[in-house]
Amino acid sequence: MEHTMQGLIQEGDGEEHVRLSNDLEHAAPLEPRQVRVEVMAAGVCGSDLSCVHGKYYMPTPLVPGHEAAGVVAEVGSAVTYCQVGDHVVLSTFGNCGHCATCENGEPGNCGFGGLRHTHTEGEQALWGFANLGAFAQETIVHENQAVPIPKEVPLPSAALIGCGVMTGAGAVFNRARVGIGDTCVVIGAGGVGLNVIQAASLAGASQVIAVDRAASKERMALEFGATDFVLADGDDFDSVAAVQQLSGGGVDHSFEVVGSTKLLADCLPMTKAGGNICAVGVPDLTATVTYPFQALHQNKNLLGIRAGGGKPRKDFRLIANLYLKGRFKLDELVSHTAGLDGLQEAFDALK
């Protein structure tokens, strides 16, 4: 290959098994519909921590990182979606773009692709987390994964659109389809939860109740559009009763964002008949959820949600444009910045 680069390698489960390498290369030459991207910013979110801790059962060795933005450095001979110099947000959907599923507007359900080797270190092939392997100075992706956005959007803020923002906002816009006057509860007011909150507010929800165990989350939850904040203080706190009281008997849409099967089960009695229970958070992939049949029987909808049901080529630009118009918060979501050698510091901040 032409040159080596810096990047992170995960060699097993646990933070102690992630190391910085100066000798990464691309796994293969650029194909006709691929794009080489210089990664300028990559977010560290809960999914990265879950991946490193083995909750997603990813093969190793692996280049982690999946929430990124950068600048197009090179395009394949058949690329039409972007050009050299474009600022792009990277999508984890390695969809083909032309099958019936893609043409029906469901790129996240496309069966094309799958895990692939994105980089190498010497003779060792390295898997790329979420089709990206974004914790490296460069990565090569399918052109469908590189979504151009206006250059006025700062890349550190833009990077968050690819996962945390899309997962939260997409759950509201694409899956629950919150409407004017609807009521919502959001369990977990972290990065993804804040995007559920601001998207629900933007969609016209009349009440958005944020629930979290940390009192420190209240300020940002209210700034992002929550109308109420419930401090779930201790294991014995009855969040269901609190939400039912605040909402007058239950909400139209409940969003579990923590990744707790217990909290997802709690969402059922928080939700009124005919409402949506939205499974946004991701627990260990082997987890099971148990709930009383009658709790779901009243025409309630239990919605599985992967990456916000996103349509990246539409949704990423929508969010970027809303940001430029002052209607969607991104900058406030960036809490810390560090180089590739600062991953442990970022994980510590997440905890």
Automatic annotation (TrEMBL):
The keyword Signal does not apply. GO terms for biological process: formaldehyde catabolic process. This is Enoyl reductase (ER) domain-containing protein. Coiled coil: none annotated. Pfam families: ADH_N, ADH_zinc_N. Residues 14-303 form the Enoyl reductase (ER) domain. Keywords: Metal-binding, NAD, Oxidoreductase, Zinc. One of its GO terms (cellular component) is cytosol. One of its GO terms (molecular function) is S-(hydroxymethyl)glutathione dehydrogenase [NAD(P)+] activity. Gene3D superfamilies: Medium-chain alcohol dehydrogenases, catalytic domain, NAD(P)-binding Rossmann-like Domain. SUPFAM superfamilies: GroES-like, NAD(P)-binding Rossmann-fold domains. Its cofactor is Zn(2+). Transmembrane segments: none annotated.
